[in-house]
Amino acid sequence: MIEPEDRIAAQDVFRALVQRKYAIPFLMDYVQAGFPSPAENYIERVLSLDDLCIYHPEATYFIRVGSDSMIGDRIDRGDFLLWDAYYCSPEVTHGKIVVVQLGEDFAVKRINYVDSNQLILESSNPKYLPIYVNKGDKFKVCGRVTFAFQKLI
Amino acid sequence: MLYGLVDANAFYVSCERSFQPRLEDKPVIVLSNHDGCIVARSDEAKALGIKMSKPLFEYKELIEANNVQVFSSNYALYADMSRRLMSTLTHFVDDVEVYSVDEAFILADGYEGIYPSVRGLGESIRQTVAQWLRIPVSVGFGPTKTLAKVANKLAKKQLELTGVCVLDTQEAIDQALDQFPVGDLWGIGGRYTGMLKGNGVETAAQLRDLPDDWIRQFMTVNGLRLVHELRGTPCKMLELSQPAKKSICAEPGFGTLVPDLETLTDALTSHLSRCCEKLRKQDSLCGAVTVYLKTNKFRKTPGNGLPAKPYYKSITVELPHPTNSTPDLLKYAISGLKAIFAFGYNYQKIGVMLTDLVPFDYRQKGVFVEGPNEKMLQLFTVVDRLNRRYGQDKLRLASQQYNPDWPMKQKYLSPRYTTRWEDILEAK
């Protein structure tokens, strides 16, 4: 039972999810008493991009970049981004690249909290001016961009 | 014991809004297969007087005048969001019973160390789902599943509860049931509502206080279970692993009326293929197939405005041996259809139902008949696998594509944001 004293915040309690099952090699053979098979120590499972990129499967979505406004961060038009809605509070997004809901659209920008009444959405392409968002504007931070995918061929 | 019911508000509408912020605060409706009837409404659409299950055309003017946003059912999107919702709940509690696409029962006992209060648990769930999925949910808690359902309804209705309602004391339960209309109870249909009202029973509290004998006599043992649940004794337990379905059916309506046998056969082939896929997915075989035909019983004859003569007929064909291969079943289904088809009617629906389901390995060789063709059974597992990989109906029976007219009409389909590369969100 979890002790009330060292209370873990509810959102930090995770249950192991059996989403993926991996075949574990089983050697249907007698173990040699002499020199063991040199390959035995190198058995691993196949790498998966999902394991590398997805921290919270329920909260992770894809988005396609529709402009060159983040080119300074090597995010170009047509790139795919992964974003995770687990990260949206000011503490974990300040100064980071985020997906925001601005008016009726989604946008990818770097966010800077000025004070409790104002924040700035910065592009990393000098062509674009920063966007000032004030209290009362139709605006929401949806999550942090976790990975960017670029096609090189 | 404390059960919780987590239910998404206007789930289909909320899924659309999750990816289209422009829909917030606007009236939105979602249509059924073939864009026929209204199956989900936003609060704004409800306020305009749009009713559930009504055909779209009845509100044509209202929709245009108020700029109501109309969507076809985007099942790919809803299924993915549903999966995310259920998976999110497992972060909070161990026992989650997925009850339908948008609601789940949870067992809320034993978390006192983690969540300061039950209300706090409900609020955390609400807040997390809102952040991760951008959809609103309501949470109701009660000592039985039926009371959790009542609590959930109250959480939705009473705005001051902010989406979470806890019925954990006798006073709270009594107060809730005193005002709860008996017809809104889980498991009380229109027929029982009429019967109960005829006997002067208007509220859930009045039903709870009726004698057991009376209830058993007029409402069967299921009614008695419901009443015990209202009194706080759990009769319905959490079903954590769902039992295999006992029957599988499909009866989507046509977009238009269909008079000829050929189109009906095509439709039957498609419905049956879908049913067989489900059958194979749960590893079952079926022993009987039922086919039924329906005309629209409210239809008026165009010339004289008199009610058109209705037609409804069904037939059950028992198979010599259980099977799950589509062509095998289709042979029997078509002969059934031919037997009940009557010339001269405009049909609105053809339905097919697979019954007498048995597990795949529960097969017995008949004495006088041969068992199902093993090769066919194997063939269709391969067909299913190919269709899962390359898209629905990529491989299908020839008669399934005879008429390109009739497959699902989806005029107002939104992008499949989470399941198709070409449909994912775009950042401006």
TrEMBL record, chain A:
Q: Which organism is it from?
A: Spirosoma pollinicola
User: Which InterPro entries is this protein grouped with?
Assistant: LexA-like, LexA/Signal_pep-like_sf, LexA_repressor, Peptidase_S24_S26A/B/C
One Pfam short name? Peptidase_S24
Name this polypeptide is given? Peptidase S24
Q: Which Gene3D superfamilies match?
A: Umud Fragment, subunit A (2.10.109.10)
Peptidase S24/S26A/S26B/S26C domain spans which residues? 27-145
Judging by the UniProt lineage, the source's domain of life is Bacteria
UniProtKB/TrEMBL annotation, chain B:
Domain of life of the organism encoding this protein: Bacteria
- List the keywords (alphabetical): DNA damage, DNA repair, SOS mutagenesis, SOS response
Which segments constitute the UmuC domain? Answer: 3-189
Its Gene Ontology cellular component terms are: cytosol
Q: Which SUPFAM superfamilies match?
A: DNA/RNA polymerases, Lesion bypass DNA polymerase (Y-family), little finger domain
Q: Name one GO biological process term.
A: error-prone translesion synthesis
Can you name one GO molecular function term for this protein?
A: damaged DNA binding
Q: Which InterPro entries match?
A: DNA/RNA_pol_sf, DNA_pol_Y-fam_lit_finger_sf, DNA_pol_Y-fam_little_finger, DNA_polymerase-Y, DUF4113, Rev_trsase/Diguanyl_cyclase, UmuC
Family of the protein in this entry: Belongs to the DNA polymerase type-Y family.
Q: What is this protein called?
A: DNA polymerase V subunit UmuC
